[in-house]
Specification:
347 residues, alpha/beta, seven-stranded mixed β-sheet, globular, COMT_dimerisation, methyltransferase, Methyltransferase, S-adenosyl-L-methionine
Protein backbone atom coordinates (compact mmCIF):
# COMPACT_ATOMS: atom_id res chain seq x y z
CA UNK A 1 0.00 0.00 0.00
CA UNK A 2 1.30 3.44 -0.94
CA UNK A 3 1.19 6.11 1.74
CA UNK A 4 1.47 9.83 1.41
CA UNK A 5 4.70 10.82 3.20
CA UNK A 6 3.37 14.32 3.87
CA UNK A 7 0.42 13.02 5.94
CA UNK A 8 1.17 11.77 9.49
CA UNK A 9 -0.07 8.35 10.55
CA UNK A 10 -3.32 8.35 12.54
CA UNK A 11 -3.25 7.02 16.09
CA UNK A 12 -5.86 5.82 18.55
CA UNK A 13 -6.49 9.33 19.86
CA UNK A 14 -7.13 10.57 16.32
CA UNK A 15 -9.74 7.87 15.75
CA UNK A 16 -11.39 8.65 19.07
CA UNK A 17 -11.48 12.32 18.18
CA UNK A 18 -13.32 11.54 14.93
CA UNK A 19 -15.78 9.33 16.82
CA UNK A 20 -16.39 12.14 19.33
CA UNK A 21 -17.19 14.52 16.48
CA UNK A 22 -19.58 12.02 14.89
CA UNK A 23 -21.43 11.49 18.17
CA UNK A 24 -21.38 15.22 18.95
CA UNK A 25 -24.79 15.83 17.43
CA UNK A 26 -26.24 13.10 19.67
CA UNK A 27 -24.79 14.78 22.74
CA UNK A 28 -26.32 18.06 21.60
CA UNK A 29 -29.75 16.47 21.19
CA UNK A 30 -29.43 14.88 24.63
CA UNK A 31 -28.78 18.34 26.02
CA UNK A 32 -31.72 19.80 24.10
CA UNK A 33 -34.14 17.11 25.27
CA UNK A 34 -33.09 17.59 28.89
CA UNK A 35 -33.69 21.33 28.72
CA UNK A 36 -37.01 21.05 26.89
CA UNK A 37 -38.26 18.49 29.41
CA UNK A 38 -37.02 20.55 32.36
CA UNK A 39 -34.73 17.86 33.78
CA UNK A 40 -32.10 20.26 35.22
CA UNK A 41 -34.87 22.12 37.09
CA UNK A 42 -35.77 18.90 38.93
CA UNK A 43 -32.27 18.11 40.20
CA UNK A 44 -30.59 19.41 43.36
CA UNK A 45 -27.09 19.02 44.75
CA UNK A 46 -28.01 16.20 47.13
CA UNK A 47 -29.51 13.76 44.65
CA UNK A 48 -32.94 12.51 43.65
CA UNK A 49 -34.13 9.09 42.44
CA UNK A 50 -34.64 8.88 38.69
CA UNK A 51 -38.19 7.68 39.33
CA UNK A 52 -39.01 10.84 41.27
CA UNK A 53 -37.67 12.99 38.43
CA UNK A 54 -39.81 11.02 35.98
CA UNK A 55 -42.84 11.48 38.25
CA UNK A 56 -42.32 15.24 38.29
CA UNK A 57 -41.97 15.39 34.53
CA UNK A 58 -44.63 12.82 33.60
CA UNK A 59 -42.08 10.88 31.57
CA UNK A 60 -41.37 7.17 31.21
CA UNK A 61 -39.29 6.07 34.24
CA UNK A 62 -36.96 3.71 32.34
CA UNK A 63 -36.35 6.20 29.55
CA UNK A 64 -35.77 8.99 32.06
CA UNK A 65 -33.16 6.87 33.84
CA UNK A 66 -31.35 6.36 30.53
CA UNK A 67 -31.42 10.09 29.79
CA UNK A 68 -30.08 10.91 33.26
CA UNK A 69 -27.25 8.40 32.86
CA UNK A 70 -26.29 10.03 29.57
CA UNK A 71 -26.35 13.46 31.23
CA UNK A 72 -24.09 12.10 33.97
CA UNK A 73 -21.67 10.73 31.39
CA UNK A 74 -21.57 14.19 29.78
CA UNK A 75 -20.82 15.88 33.09
CA UNK A 76 -24.23 17.55 33.29
CA UNK A 77 -25.40 15.47 36.25
CA UNK A 78 -23.85 13.19 38.84
CA UNK A 79 -24.87 9.71 39.98
CA UNK A 80 -23.56 9.43 43.57
CA UNK A 81 -25.52 6.20 44.10
CA UNK A 82 -27.15 3.84 41.60
CA UNK A 83 -30.28 5.50 40.25
CA UNK A 84 -29.75 8.70 42.29
CA UNK A 85 -28.92 11.83 40.30
CA UNK A 86 -27.66 15.21 41.44
CA UNK A 87 -26.93 18.52 39.76
CA UNK A 88 -23.37 19.43 38.80
CA UNK A 89 -22.10 22.99 38.56
CA UNK A 90 -22.12 22.68 34.77
CA UNK A 91 -25.55 21.13 34.55
CA UNK A 92 -27.01 23.70 36.95
CA UNK A 93 -26.41 26.35 34.28
CA UNK A 94 -29.36 24.79 32.48
CA UNK A 95 -31.82 25.63 35.27
CA UNK A 96 -34.30 28.28 34.20
CA UNK A 97 -34.38 30.02 37.58
CA UNK A 98 -30.70 31.05 37.53
CA UNK A 99 -29.74 34.60 36.50
CA UNK A 100 -26.83 33.09 34.53
CA UNK A 101 -28.99 30.37 32.95
CA UNK A 102 -28.12 29.07 29.49
CA UNK A 103 -31.41 27.22 29.02
CA UNK A 104 -32.81 29.57 26.37
CA UNK A 105 -29.46 29.58 24.56
CA UNK A 106 -29.59 25.77 24.38
CA UNK A 107 -33.23 25.79 23.31
CA UNK A 108 -32.66 28.28 20.51
CA UNK A 109 -29.49 26.86 19.03
CA UNK A 110 -30.85 23.31 19.13
CA UNK A 111 -34.35 24.20 17.96
CA UNK A 112 -35.37 22.41 14.75
CA UNK A 113 -35.60 25.82 13.10
CA UNK A 114 -31.88 26.36 13.75
CA UNK A 115 -30.77 22.79 13.12
CA UNK A 116 -32.67 21.92 9.94
CA UNK A 117 -30.54 23.97 7.56
CA UNK A 118 -27.38 22.30 8.88
CA UNK A 119 -28.51 19.06 7.25
CA UNK A 120 -27.96 20.86 3.95
CA UNK A 121 -24.52 22.29 4.77
CA UNK A 122 -23.06 20.54 1.75
CA UNK A 123 -25.61 22.34 -0.46
CA UNK A 124 -24.51 25.68 1.02
CA UNK A 125 -20.89 24.84 0.31
CA UNK A 126 -21.72 23.89 -3.28
CA UNK A 127 -23.78 26.99 -4.00
CA UNK A 128 -22.75 29.60 -1.42
CA UNK A 129 -26.44 30.13 -0.65
CA UNK A 130 -28.28 30.12 2.67
CA UNK A 131 -30.16 26.84 2.97
CA UNK A 132 -32.55 28.03 5.72
CA UNK A 133 -34.52 29.95 3.09
CA UNK A 134 -34.88 26.82 0.98
CA UNK A 135 -35.98 24.66 3.91
CA UNK A 136 -38.54 27.09 5.35
CA UNK A 137 -39.46 29.21 2.33
CA UNK A 138 -38.60 32.43 4.19
CA UNK A 139 -35.45 33.99 5.65
CA UNK A 140 -34.47 33.37 9.27
CA UNK A 141 -35.69 36.67 10.68
CA UNK A 142 -38.92 36.44 8.69
CA UNK A 143 -39.46 33.01 10.25
CA UNK A 144 -38.93 34.46 13.72
CA UNK A 145 -41.44 37.21 13.03
CA UNK A 146 -44.06 34.61 12.11
CA UNK A 147 -43.42 32.54 15.26
CA UNK A 148 -43.66 34.77 18.37
CA UNK A 149 -42.66 32.03 20.83
CA UNK A 150 -39.52 31.25 18.86
CA UNK A 151 -38.79 34.97 18.60
CA UNK A 152 -39.00 35.30 22.39
CA UNK A 153 -36.68 32.31 22.79
CA UNK A 154 -34.26 33.88 20.32
CA UNK A 155 -34.25 37.16 22.25
CA UNK A 156 -33.71 35.32 25.53
CA UNK A 157 -30.88 33.29 24.01
CA UNK A 158 -29.18 36.46 22.80
CA UNK A 159 -29.45 37.89 26.31
CA UNK A 160 -27.85 34.78 27.79
CA UNK A 161 -25.14 34.69 25.13
CA UNK A 162 -24.33 38.36 25.82
CA UNK A 163 -23.65 37.78 29.52
CA UNK A 164 -19.92 37.10 29.10
CA UNK A 165 -19.42 40.25 27.01
CA UNK A 166 -21.53 42.35 29.39
CA UNK A 167 -19.30 41.29 32.27
CA UNK A 168 -16.05 42.50 30.71
CA UNK A 169 -16.78 45.13 28.05
CA UNK A 170 -17.53 48.12 30.35
CA UNK A 171 -14.08 47.82 31.95
CA UNK A 172 -12.27 47.08 28.67
CA UNK A 173 -13.43 50.03 26.54
CA UNK A 174 -12.68 53.63 27.50
CA UNK A 175 -15.93 55.54 27.07
CA UNK A 176 -15.04 58.47 29.33
CA UNK A 177 -14.48 60.68 26.28
CA UNK A 178 -18.13 60.42 25.22
CA UNK A 179 -21.30 61.71 26.84
CA UNK A 180 -23.73 59.40 25.00
CA UNK A 181 -23.81 55.95 23.40
CA UNK A 182 -26.36 54.18 21.22
CA UNK A 183 -26.54 50.39 21.19
CA UNK A 184 -27.70 49.60 17.66
CA UNK A 185 -29.62 46.33 17.55
CA UNK A 186 -29.26 46.18 21.33
CA UNK A 187 -32.12 43.75 21.94
CA UNK A 188 -33.39 43.68 25.50
CA UNK A 189 -30.76 46.13 26.74
CA UNK A 190 -28.58 43.69 28.69
CA UNK A 191 -25.31 45.01 27.27
CA UNK A 192 -26.35 48.66 27.40
CA UNK A 193 -27.39 48.28 31.04
CA UNK A 194 -23.96 46.94 31.97
CA UNK A 195 -22.28 49.81 30.10
CA UNK A 196 -24.42 52.43 31.85
CA UNK A 197 -23.69 50.81 35.21
CA UNK A 198 -19.96 50.95 34.52
CA UNK A 199 -20.02 54.51 33.14
CA UNK A 200 -22.32 56.65 35.31
CA UNK A 201 -21.72 59.75 33.19
CA UNK A 202 -23.13 58.20 30.01
CA UNK A 203 -26.54 58.77 28.48
CA UNK A 204 -27.73 55.68 26.61
CA UNK A 205 -30.05 54.99 23.68
CA UNK A 206 -31.24 51.52 22.75
CA UNK A 207 -32.17 51.20 19.08
CA UNK A 208 -33.79 48.05 17.74
CA UNK A 209 -36.92 46.77 16.09
CA UNK A 210 -40.08 46.75 18.17
CA UNK A 211 -39.80 42.96 18.55
CA UNK A 212 -36.12 43.13 19.46
CA UNK A 213 -36.60 45.80 22.12
CA UNK A 214 -39.84 44.38 23.47
CA UNK A 215 -38.39 43.33 26.85
CA UNK A 216 -35.83 46.10 27.28
CA UNK A 217 -37.73 47.82 30.11
CA UNK A 218 -36.63 45.09 32.54
CA UNK A 219 -32.88 45.39 31.92
CA UNK A 220 -32.96 49.18 31.74
CA UNK A 221 -35.25 49.79 34.72
CA UNK A 222 -32.38 51.08 36.87
CA UNK A 223 -31.62 53.96 34.48
CA UNK A 224 -34.95 55.77 33.99
CA UNK A 225 -33.36 59.18 33.44
CA UNK A 226 -30.31 58.11 31.48
CA UNK A 227 -31.70 55.86 28.76
CA UNK A 228 -34.13 56.08 25.87
CA UNK A 229 -35.54 53.26 23.77
CA UNK A 230 -36.07 54.02 20.08
CA UNK A 231 -37.51 51.50 17.63
CA UNK A 232 -36.86 51.36 13.93
CA UNK A 233 -35.04 49.55 11.12
CA UNK A 234 -31.30 50.08 10.63
CA UNK A 235 -31.73 49.21 6.96
CA UNK A 236 -33.87 52.34 6.65
CA UNK A 237 -31.86 54.63 8.90
CA UNK A 238 -30.24 55.09 12.31
CA UNK A 239 -31.18 57.93 14.70
CA UNK A 240 -28.60 60.60 15.41
CA UNK A 241 -27.85 62.46 18.60
CA UNK A 242 -25.12 60.31 20.18
CA UNK A 243 -21.33 60.55 20.17
CA UNK A 244 -20.58 56.83 20.29
CA UNK A 245 -22.41 53.98 18.57
CA UNK A 246 -22.07 50.28 19.28
CA UNK A 247 -23.13 47.11 17.46
CA UNK A 248 -22.65 43.68 19.00
CA UNK A 249 -23.37 40.48 17.06
CA UNK A 250 -25.06 42.42 14.28
CA UNK A 251 -22.45 42.55 11.52
CA UNK A 252 -22.00 38.76 11.36
CA UNK A 253 -25.71 38.29 10.62
CA UNK A 254 -25.45 39.88 7.17
CA UNK A 255 -23.52 39.75 3.92
CA UNK A 256 -21.18 42.56 2.90
CA UNK A 257 -23.78 44.46 0.89
CA UNK A 258 -26.28 44.52 3.76
CA UNK A 259 -23.63 45.51 6.32
CA UNK A 260 -22.43 48.32 4.06
CA UNK A 261 -25.97 49.71 4.01
CA UNK A 262 -26.09 49.70 7.83
CA UNK A 263 -22.63 51.28 8.06
CA UNK A 264 -23.57 54.07 5.64
CA UNK A 265 -26.62 54.87 7.75
CA UNK A 266 -24.35 55.01 10.78
CA UNK A 267 -21.85 57.18 8.92
CA UNK A 268 -24.62 59.70 8.30
CA UNK A 269 -25.13 60.22 12.07
CA UNK A 270 -21.79 59.52 13.80
CA UNK A 271 -20.15 62.94 14.44
CA UNK A 272 -16.63 63.64 13.22
CA UNK A 273 -15.24 63.24 16.74
CA UNK A 274 -17.44 60.20 17.44
CA UNK A 275 -16.71 56.52 17.23
CA UNK A 276 -18.34 53.29 16.14
CA UNK A 277 -17.61 50.17 18.18
CA UNK A 278 -18.23 46.83 16.48
CA UNK A 279 -18.15 43.83 18.83
CA UNK A 280 -17.73 40.53 17.00
CA UNK A 281 -15.54 37.44 16.92
CA UNK A 282 -12.55 38.05 14.65
CA UNK A 283 -11.01 35.19 12.70
CA UNK A 284 -7.21 35.04 12.40
CA UNK A 285 -5.71 35.30 8.93
CA UNK A 286 -5.13 31.54 8.94
CA UNK A 287 -6.76 28.72 10.92
CA UNK A 288 -3.69 28.41 13.15
CA UNK A 289 -5.44 27.27 16.34
CA UNK A 290 -5.50 30.72 17.94
CA UNK A 291 -9.29 31.06 17.59
CA UNK A 292 -11.75 28.79 19.35
CA UNK A 293 -13.31 26.20 16.99
CA UNK A 294 -16.74 27.60 17.93
CA UNK A 295 -15.88 30.73 15.94
CA UNK A 296 -15.51 28.67 12.77
CA UNK A 297 -18.69 26.71 13.50
CA UNK A 298 -20.45 30.03 14.02
CA UNK A 299 -19.20 31.08 10.59
CA UNK A 300 -20.85 28.02 9.05
CA UNK A 301 -24.00 28.66 11.11
CA UNK A 302 -24.18 32.16 9.67
CA UNK A 303 -23.84 30.70 6.18
CA UNK A 304 -26.58 28.08 6.41
CA UNK A 305 -29.07 30.00 8.58
CA UNK A 306 -28.89 33.75 8.02
CA UNK A 307 -26.54 34.44 5.12
CA UNK A 308 -23.93 36.25 7.19
CA UNK A 309 -20.36 35.35 8.10
CA UNK A 310 -17.54 35.75 10.58
CA UNK A 311 -14.65 37.86 9.31
CA UNK A 312 -10.92 38.47 9.67
CA UNK A 313 -9.56 41.82 10.83
CA UNK A 314 -8.63 42.72 7.26
CA UNK A 315 -12.12 41.87 6.06
CA UNK A 316 -13.55 44.10 8.78
CA UNK A 317 -11.16 46.87 7.74
CA UNK A 318 -12.33 46.69 4.13
CA UNK A 319 -15.98 46.47 5.12
CA UNK A 320 -15.74 49.49 7.42
CA UNK A 321 -13.98 51.46 4.69
CA UNK A 322 -16.82 50.68 2.29
CA UNK A 323 -19.21 52.14 4.84
CA UNK A 324 -17.19 55.32 5.41
CA UNK A 325 -15.14 54.34 8.49
CA UNK A 326 -11.47 53.79 9.27
CA UNK A 327 -10.51 50.96 11.60
CA UNK A 328 -8.62 52.55 14.51
CA UNK A 329 -8.00 49.50 16.70
CA UNK A 330 -9.01 45.89 17.27
CA UNK A 331 -8.73 44.74 20.89
CA UNK A 332 -9.79 41.26 22.05
CA UNK A 333 -11.95 41.28 25.15
CA UNK A 334 -10.73 39.43 28.25
CA UNK A 335 -11.88 35.85 28.83
CA UNK A 336 -14.41 34.36 29.01
CA UNK A 337 -15.61 36.49 26.11
CA UNK A 338 -14.45 35.36 22.66
CA UNK A 339 -15.15 38.73 21.05
CA UNK A 340 -13.02 41.59 19.78
CA UNK A 341 -13.90 45.30 20.00
CA UNK A 342 -13.21 47.03 16.70
CA UNK A 343 -13.09 50.81 17.10
CA UNK A 344 -13.76 52.83 13.94
CA UNK A 345 -13.73 56.53 13.15
CA UNK A 346 -15.76 58.21 10.38
CA UNK A 347 -13.76 59.34 7.37
Amino acid sequence: MTTNPTVPDAGVDDRRAISALVFGHMAAQTLAAAVRLGVPDRLDDTGRPAGDVAGDLGTDPAATLRLLRALAALGLAGEPEPGIFAATARGALLRRDRPDSLAAFVEMFLDPAMVAAWAKLDDSVRTGRTTFDEVFGVDFFGHLAAHPHLSRTFNASMRQATAAVSAVLPGAVDLRRFDSLMDVGGGDGTLLASILAGHPHLRGVLFDSAAGAAESAIALADFPYRVEVVTGDFFVGVPGGCEAYLMKSIVHDWDDAAVTTILRHLHAVVPDHGRLFVVEPVLPGTADGSAHPITYLSDLNMMVNVGGRERTEEEFRALLAAGGFELVSAEPLPAPAVFTVLEAAPT
